[in-house]
């Protein structure tokens, strides 16, 4: 468990409430027609996890700091701004989703929980030792496996399931192209790539390919399982989907379904929120040239830990405003799918620069990295073209 913990955590973090509810929304809207994206993401995620972790391991620096040293402050701040835009929306809405899930479990108003959750996240990042927190977060990811069991229960014919995933009926609608971008963005978010390099620097030790394989497989299989479950939902309006209605994806479990859903959201949220907050603060601090490490006492990296406190305060305050959590999370993943493109290009460049790392990527790693960047450009262009052509 200890050897592959970083990969498990990275994979579980990809399946935060944003990714779970995005998969629920697209599954309820398009059925299995977007399922192929989750499978395509497996080798792409593996390549990105390996490349970004290797940059952090070999340089002893976070990705944004390496970018700043290689391409200058403007490039670093531009990338940090993209990460902040995506992460702040995800942090605010993830906090709301976990609060709503805890509300359904405890039968207490959801506004009781944001401040408590934020304090727990702050304590993990600012007061707890990172390696101990990492092991605890890895165990929390086990809640997510309920979706795989639910997908098996709701599937009547695995032959038909495979046919609809591998030979999908693709509608020529702009919202379908947007859904592809959202699902891709939910699995390949900018924060998780930054986390891989920055956490690898803090963890130390050699990089293991098994970490990337485990994390990517977990993320992709659970996302596909959520889509399968959501495709079986009935009498749901995707345009007005709420977190409580999203629990219908586990309806085959009867009364236990909402409980399993809530536990999954709470578990995935508590795994992801510290990583979302830390990766956002890593990007800002490294772009500014500040000291940033989870293994240092707060007074030895004051700017970094002040940022963590400020981000959590903003997130709790924003939760006082009413909003549709599912829609905010969904469009945050669309933004992630757009903003991850320049980050992918930077990772390709840095991980092949022998003045920064000891060796270049393999042919297949560059194939999947380049293909992902090109594919996301095409998907974004298709969404814009179909939208204008309506």
Explain briefly what this protein structure is.
The chain is mainly alpha-helical and 390 residues long. It contains 17 helices and no strands. The protein is globular.
Q: What percent strand? A: under 5%
- Low-confidence parts lasting 5 or more residues at pLDDT below 50? none
Number of helices: 17
End-to-end Cα distance, whole Å, is 51 Å
- Characterize the main sheet: none
CATH homology group: Amino acid/polyamine transporter I
CATH fold category name: Amino acid/polyamine transporter I
Top-tier CATH class:
Mainly Alpha
Question: Which architecture does the CATH hierarchy give at level 2?
Answer: Up-down Bundle
What is the mean pLDDT? 80
Radius of gyration: 20 Å
Q: How much helix is in the residues?
A: over 70%
Order of helices and strands: HHHHHHHHHHHHHHHHH
Question: So what's the oligomer here?
Answer: single chain
Judged by helices, strands and strand pairing, the structural class is mainly alpha
Q: What is the number of domains?
A: 1
Strand elements, count = 0
């Amino acid at each position: 468990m200890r050897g592959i913990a970083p990969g498990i955590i990275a994979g579980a973090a990809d399946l935060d409430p944003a990714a779970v509810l995005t998969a629920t929304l697209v599954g309820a809207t398009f059925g299995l027609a977007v399922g192929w994206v989750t499978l395509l993401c497996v080798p792409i995620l593996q390549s990105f996890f390996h490349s970004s972790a290797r940059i952090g391991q070999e340089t002893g620096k976070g990705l944004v700091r390496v970018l700043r040293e290689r391409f200058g402050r403007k490039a670093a701040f531009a990338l940090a701004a993209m990460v902040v835009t995506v992460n702040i929306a995800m942090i605010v809405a993830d906090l709301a989703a976990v609060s709503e899930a805890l509300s359904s479990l405890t039968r207490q108003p959801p506004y009781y929980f944001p401040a408590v959750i934020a304090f727990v996240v702050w304590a993990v990042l600012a007061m707890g030792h990172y390696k101990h927190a990492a092991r605890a977060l890895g165990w929390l990811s086990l809640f997510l496996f309920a979706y795989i069991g639910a997908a098996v229960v709701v599937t009547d014919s695995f032959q038909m399931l495979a046919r609809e995933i591998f030979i999908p009926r693709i509608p020529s609608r702009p919202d379908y192209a947007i859904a592809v971008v959202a699902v891709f963005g939910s699995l390949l978010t900018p924060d998780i790539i930054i986390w891989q390099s920055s956490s690898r620097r803090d963890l130390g030790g050699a990089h293991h390919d098994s970490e990337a394989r485990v994390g990517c497989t977990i993320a992709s299989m659970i996302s596909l399982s959520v889509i399968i479950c959501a495709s079986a939902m009935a009498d749901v309006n995707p345009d007005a989907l709420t977190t409580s209605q999203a629990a219908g994806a586990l309806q085959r479990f009867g009364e236990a379904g909402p409980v399993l859903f809530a536990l999954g959201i709470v578990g995935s949220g508590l795994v992801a929120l510290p990583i979302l907050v830390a990766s956002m603060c890593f990007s800002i601090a490294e772009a500014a040239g500040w000291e940033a490490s989870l293994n240092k006492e707060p007074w030895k990296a004051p700017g970094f830990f002040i940022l963590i406190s400020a981000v959590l305060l903003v997130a709790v305050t924003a939760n006082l405003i009413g909003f549709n959590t599912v829609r905010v999370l969904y469009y945050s993943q669309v933004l992630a799918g757009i903003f991850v493109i320049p980050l992918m290009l930077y990772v390709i460049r840095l991980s092949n620069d022998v003045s920064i790392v000891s060796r270049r990527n393999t042919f297949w790693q560059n194939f999947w990295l380049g293909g992902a960047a090109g594919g996301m450009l095409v998907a974004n262009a298709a969404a814009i073209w179909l939208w204008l052509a309506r």
